[in-house]
Design goal:
With 250 residues, the protein is α/β, with parallel strands linked by helices. The two termini are 17 Å apart. Strands 1-2-3-4-5-6-7-8 form an eight-stranded parallel β-barrel, surrounded by six helices. The longest helix is centred in the C-terminal third of the chain and has 18 residues. The protein has a single domain, classed as TIM Barrel, CATH 3.20.20.70. It binds 2-phosphoglycolic acid (PGA). 2-phosphoglycolic acid binds next to strand 8. The site of 2-phosphoglycolic acid has 13 residues, from strand 8.
Length: 250
């Protein structure tokens, strides 16, 4: 199973800035990208085309969208469709990132529609899950993860190919705060997610599970070495080619 090293650029970077970072990253990683790693860049929509040009001919690099709307086309002002993401060069798309859930109010049943629709359209889907700080303090981590997984995958065929689906565990309190979960907590959460995926999906033992939340060059290696951690989803530390290349090669 290849480790997926994903960079979520959120609402940062112009077209030229995104191209430059992508170009610098490819140069910094050079030919040393190990064969068991994949790099995924998830820039803002306006930079997708520009970034894909920078990745042309580079083995192991992929492009992803941060979001999409679960319809083919239509009167959905401000939204983007899976076909439009595919047309721009995307292979992957995020669904249910904590900022979509908690800032933009997206609910589990809507996310379930996105997962199944995106898969049907041919995108590989990264379903993001994770507990809020108060849920953690109340000892409800497993309850929250179970709900987000069960509801998020409710409409998805249990025989979905493992390579089409990725789950990202991102504790909400660790995103953009500099506070990373303890290795033991990451291990527990990923082991729990793995056991649920095995129960829910026929290929649940092979679905990649990423960790996200203040991943940095200095903590990446120990996180990526844990059982059931099949990659990372990185925000802040992915904005500069220098730090993200260290993460990719950790
Ligand atoms: P962060 O963001 O690395 O800045 O904590 C992670 C994410 O939002 O996916």
């Amino acid at each position: 199973m290849k480790k997926l090293m994903a960079a979520n650029w959120k609402m940062f970077k112009t077209w030229e800035e995104a191209r430059q970072t992508a170009r610098e990253l490819v140069v910094a990683v050079g030919s040393s990208l190990p064969g068991d790693r994949e790099v995924l860049l998830i820039p803002p929509f306006t930079a997708l085309r520009g970034v894909v040009e920078m990745l042309a001919g580079e083995d192991g690099y992929f492009l992803g969208g941060q979001n999409f709307y679960p319809e083919v086309q239509g009167a959905f002002t401000g939204e983007i469709s899976p076909d439009q993401l595919l047309d721009a060069g995307c292979t992957y798309a995020l669904v249910g990132h904590s900022e979509r859930r908690h800032v933009l109010g997206e609910k589990d049943d809507f996310l379930a529609r996105k997962v199944v629709f995106g898969l049907e359209k041919g995108l590989k889907i990264i379903l993001c899950i994770g507990e809020k700080i108060e849920e953690r303090k109340e000892g409800r981590i497993q309850e929250v993860l179970t709900r987000q997984l069960e509801m998020g995958l409710e409409k998805t065929d249990k025989d979905v190919p493992a390579m089409d689906l990725v789950v990202a565990y991102e504790p909400v309190w660790a995103i953009g705060t500099g506070e990373t979960a303890e290795l033991e907590d990451i291990s527990h959460a990923h082991g729990f997610i793995r056991s649920r995926l095995k129960e829910m999906l026929s290929q649940g033992d092979q679905v990649r599970i990423l960790y996200g939340g203040s991943v940095k060059p200095d903590n990446c290696q120990s996180i990526i070495g844990l059982d059931n951690v099949d990659g990372v989803l990185v925000g802040g530390a992915s904005l500069k080619a220098d730090s993200f290349s260290q993460i990719v090669l950790a």
